Amino acid sequence: MTTKLRLENMNDYNIVRPRLIGYRRVSTAGQVDGYGLPAQMTDLKSYVRGKHYRLKAVETDAGLSGTLPADERPALLSALKEIECGKADGILLPGDLDRIARELIVQEAIMSRVWKCGGIVVTTTRGEIEADDPDDPMRTALRQFMGVVAQLDRAMVAKRMRNGRKAKAATGGYAGYGSPAFGVKSVNASLVPDEAEKATTARMQELRAQGQSYREIAAVLNAEGLRSKRGGTWHSQTVSRVLGRVSA
Fold this sequence. Notes:
Blueprint: E1 2-6, E2 19-26, H1 37-48, E3 54-62, H2 74-84, E4 90-93, H3 104-116, E5 120-123, E6 127-129, H4 137-170, E7 184-187, E8 190-193, H5 195-209, H6 214-223, H7 236-247
Parallel strand pairs: 2-3, 2-4, 4-5
Antiparallel strand pairs: 1-3, 5-6, 7-8
């Protein structure tokens, strides 16, 4: 899901301040990791308050991995195009650079794209990230070293999680990543059908057979009080994912 919030005050054009596009991202639409979309928005707004920056807009990629390149993240791509066409002066990231990309190579490619057109990259924890300077190679090396360490740390965490799932599977428990797929639930470490979710899936299939779009189906499910896996509202993307899994 991609959303865009306009925050610019149209009466502020006479104020000369760098116009930044805030960029929020979570890997899953229902991610709860202590730093979800609301917390990220709070940090973006708090950071520019009292500073010489202006938060022009906020772009949001919800449910998209930070390992994806910019061209596969609509909100990030929109932010970059705003900078490239001169409608914004840079990008503001909540937290650190891992918000823009989880992998160093992707991170570097995106920042280079911003710097190439004269834009700036700012994070709420480190401030403005200085652009590469051929006369100061140490600057680039230190930034990339920090990125390598962060990437290694994430890889080690992922490895521990995989090992934990393998150990759980060895004892006969459910070893899937995150919540079970829509339509099933974990009971005593075993997957069993979830009758309520199966009924919701059947309703989706019925509406789809009537020719309704994913967006229209989501609206009907929400109006009928049918909830998603985590009890939230439905969106076209989540409907598409559930139906795609059923038909696969």
